[in-house]
Specification:
Helix content is 34%, strand content 19%. The protein is of the alpha/beta class and 222 residues long. The protein has a seven-stranded mixed sheet with strand order 1-3-4-2-5-6-7, with helices on both faces.
Length: 222
């Protein structure tokens, strides 16, 4: 049987799942919101970032991962998050701590152009200037697949040489008949991007689908 490109990630084995559980069972606290590179915290631990267009469910996913209902602010107003938000995850000084980084949402129509351009400049500087950034997670709504605005951030990650993994959100809201065509569309779009990590993770923040897999992925990055 031919292996599909960008297969869905396998469920982690028990020890790996436990590593993810333990990491996210520890402290997770908001550290700071950053609006310029000189405000970045020291690059002294492994870092992962989450990117996605507005209303893709990014805040809900971060809250589901951490088990905290209001750690990342969910909003019905697209583009509300205007800073790069850093969260400290894990027990300090035991070698497992991480930064979780929530990037500003993109694809919103109502933000002033000057504001959007400022965010884009900061995003480019962040992606090219963080040596401890191990992976970006690009969130894509499973109901809609990859949109042109998603490919813009993927191309930026390509040019910044930052490995990114596609996380499909709101998987509980897609009809069974639409799942395979959606996955085919996502795979065909990702095939154009050299920085794309060759596995997909299908998630539902409401149902908990894929949360253990994503936790384990973050916990095992080196």
């Amino acid at each position: 049987m031919t292996q599909l490109p960008f297969p869905l990630a396998d469920e982690p084995d028990a020890p790996t799942k436990e590593r993810g559980r333990l990491l996210f069972a520890g402290p997770c606290d908001f550290l700071k919101g950053v609006v310029a590179m000189d405000g970045m915290p020291p690059a002294d631990r492994i870092e992962v970032c989450f990117a996605g267009r507005s209303n893709v469910g990014k805040s809900s996913l971060i809250n589901a991962l951490t088990g905290r209902k209001a750690l990342a602010r969910a909003s019905n107003t697209p583009g509300r998050t205007q800073e790069i938000n850093f969260f400290e995850l894990g027990v300090p000084d035991n070698g497992t701590e991480r930064y979780l980084v929530d990037l500003p949402g993109y694809g919103y129509a109502n933000a002033p152009l000057a504001v959007v351009e400022k965010w884009q400049r900061l995003l480019k500087r962040y992606l090219s200037g963080r040596p401890n950034l191990r992976r970006a997670f690009v969130l894509v709504d499973a109901r809609h697949g990859v949109k042109p605005v998603d490919e813009e951030i993927m191309s930026l990650l390509d040019s910044s040489a930052v490995t990114f993994q596609c996380i499909l959100t709101k998987a509980d809201k897609i009809k069974d008949k639409d799942r395979d065509p959606m996955l085919a569309q996502v795979r065909s779009r990702l095939a154009k991007h050299p920085a794309a990590y060759p596995e997909l993770i299908l998630t539902s923040s409401e149902k908990g689908d894929g949360i253990e897999t994503l936790r384990a992925t973050i916990a095992t990055l080196e």
